Amino acid sequence: MPVAYTVPDASALLHAADVCGAVGLGREIDRGPGRHGLSNALFLYVRDPDQHRIELFTTHYQFIDLETPPIRWDVSDPQRAQLWGMPASERWFFEASEFPAEPVQEPLLKANPETLEEYLGLH
Ligand SMILES: [Fe+2]
């Protein structure tokens, strides 16, 4: 689970990516930019210098028109997690930083997501 911070809009998210590149952390961006399906939030995931994953995203909160029917997502629909953008890298899916005194647990769900490396034909 990443630590997440909200940013006000898309330009702030891209500015954060530019700052990452300017300070030498461009290769630490391991997912995004993209847009989540469930929340409709734009996102960018980056590793900090200690390799903890940080998510920057535009807010989940939005005004709801009560006359608009809710969207029912299927758990197997990949657009639930990402409407557009390149697939996440293998390290995004399968690597996480450990926290002292917190035991590592196996994931509850076994998934076989398409990774960026597979998408690009690198495997
Ligand atoms: Fe996210």
From TrEMBL:
Protein name (record): 3,4-dihydroxyphenylacetate 2,3-dioxygenase
Organism, as annotated: Candidatus Microbacterium stercoravium
Superkingdom to which the source organism belongs: Bacteria
InterPro entries in the record: Glyas_Bleomycin-R_OHBP_Dase (IPR029068)
